[in-house]
Amino acid sequence: MKLLNKKTGIIGVCMMAAGTVILSGCKTFSGTDTSNQEMEARDYEAFMKHTADVYKNYVTLGEYKGLKTTAVDRSSENISDSAVDGAIQELISKSKKTEDITNGGTTASGDQIVLNYTGTIDGKPFDGGTASDQTYTIGSGQYISDLDKGLVGLQANKDYDIPVKFPDDYSSEALKGKNAVFKVHITKITRTTTPEANDEWVKDNRKMFKNFGYGEPENIGELKNNIKESMAKQAKQNNDIAEFETVYNQILEKTEIKGYPEEEKNALENTYKENIKSQYEQYGSAYGVQSYDDYIQKVYGKNEEEFSKYVQDTTETYLKQKMIVTLIARENHIKVSTEDITFLGGTLAAYYGFDDFNALIKQYGKKINCELGYQSLYSKVASYVISVSERGDSNESKGQTTENNANESTQAVETTGTTETTEAKETTGN
User: Fold this and answer.
1) At 242, phi and psi to the nearest 5?
2) Secondary structure in 3-state letters for the chain
């Protein structure tokens, strides 16, 4: 159960990752405040021990070993080559390079340009044939064919005359079949280069791969192996968590909950309410409501009193699980390392477009180390519990593989007619 989120867009923390963060000396914790705190990644282990010392005053663990789980379908752990290829294509997309050229260069199909143009027939401008600061992608087919083709091979900041012939079926009666000349001046060429998935690309993007938890491969073959291992690891963790959820209620039934640490409970309730208010501020108008109370009624079907009880129940449900998970970890010496947290943080940073984990922390604060630490702890406890449980029947279909079905995007190019090829001529006297 993920209770916490970030008002600015990062919701919960359940990503797998790799990354680095600058660390300082360990700190100590005291008192009963077990809510999320600002901390370095290396401090989480000490904080976890402190929270366990607090939680044991409220919880008497029941039996959590030897229980019967319901086995989940683990075919997702068999990673197919096509799934790896899909991940490679995502990485390729993220490593595209874009450059703006305002002098020189040479335009090519696929380039985005900004241009000014004036169209003339027999030396006279015609209606609709003049524009400034127009953004156009060469090869898109949005201009008539002759003009589109004539924009290839031009340089920025130079003037050109492009002779064209309007198609016989052109939409304007006044222009159908007419010969014209477009005086064109390109002010900017924006070119996006897509790299090939080869050894050179791998060596140039090792930092990005590390942020995604794929290590620092030396070549494309090593990258593919690392991706497959990482995807299998992520799938196993997800399946472990899913199977843990099938036995958690048994653990809860055998556990005595005597209360909750008030500081953490209050902090969680306040955070939950703040998140809902943030949702109202962002989406309230889409629901056609004018007040926060109306939003609560429409979205949650509750009045103010009922919603407060709902938040309290949700928080207590979360805290029960957090206390149980933390105490199981403490009893069995399950630890969260700095590497565990930075592994999660790196991919979270890469997923949201940050340079690295440090950049993520700079924007959202060091409380994120605490959130990441608990997510890692939860995953490790889930794996441990199912390892000491009796696995029940599974509906698993053996031999199945998972594939990331890439959505193939095709672009229909509308043409306005075909005419003989004409050539753009640079205007002399510039």
Assistant:
1) -60, -40
2) CCCCECCCCCECCCCCCCCCCCCCCCCCCCCCCCCCCCCCHHHHHHHHHHHHHHHCCCEECCCCCCCEECCCCCHHHCECHHHHHHHHHHHHHHCCEEEEECCECCCCCCCEEEEEEEEEECCEEEEEEEEEEEEEECCCCCCCHHHHHHCCCCCECCEEEEEEECCCCCCCCCCCCCEEEEEEEEEEEEEEECCCCCHHHHHHCHHHHHHCCCCCCCCHHHHHHHHHHHHHHHHHHHHHHHHHHHHHHHHHHHCEECCCCHHHHHHHHHHHHHHHHHHHHHHHHHHCCCCHHHHHHHHHCCCHHHHHHHHHHHHHHHHHHHHHHHHHHHHCCCCCCHHHHHHHHHHHHHHCCCCCHHHHHHHHCCHHHHHHHHHHHHHHHHHHHHHCCEECCCCCCCCCCECCCCCCCCCCCCCCCCCCCCCCEECCCC
pLDDT band at 427; cut points 50, 70, 90:
low
Q: Are β-strands 68-69 and 390-391 bridged in parallel, bridged antiparallel, or unpaired?
A: parallel
Q: Tokens at residue 273, please?
A: 């309410």
pLDDT above 80 (res 10): no
What burial class does residue 368 get, using C-beta atoms within 10 Å of its C-beta: 0-12 exposed, 13-18 middle, 19+ buried?
A: buried
pLDDT at site 208: 87
- Please calculate the CA angle 186-192-196 and round it to the nearest 5 degrees: 145
pLDDT score of 35 more than 60: yes
Question: Cα separation of 277 and 290, whole Å?
Answer: 13
pLDDT given for residue 26 in this prediction: 52
| pLDDT confidence bin for 37, thresholds 50/70/90 | confident
Is the pTM higher than 0.90? The answer reads: no
Q: Do 371 and 319 meet the contact criterion of CB atoms below 8 Å apart?
A: no
Residues 378-413: tens digit of each pLDDT: 999 999 999 999 987 654 433 333 333 333 332 322
